[in-house]
Amino acid sequence: MEPVKKTEAPGYYQVIRFPMDLKTMSERLKSRYYTTRKLFMADMQRIFTNCREYNPPESEYYKCANLLEKFFYTKIKEAGLIEK
Question: What's this model's pTM, rounded to 2 decimal places?
Fold first, then answer.
């Protein structure tokens, strides 16, 4: 939901070169940063990828990233924004 805090995830910013979070995406939406669907989708995908890169596969975070990614793409397809 928000940028990762260094105190909560030691070494995160050494592992993750391009952090992304939903708060930043919300701010980008408000400022009209997303001029294409591709930009929006890339940031969303970065959240999932970063989560899986930093956290071990057996962690709740990793599993939640997989679930959220699946949900996201299901909704995007249902809305007709990408091909099924």
Answer: 0.91
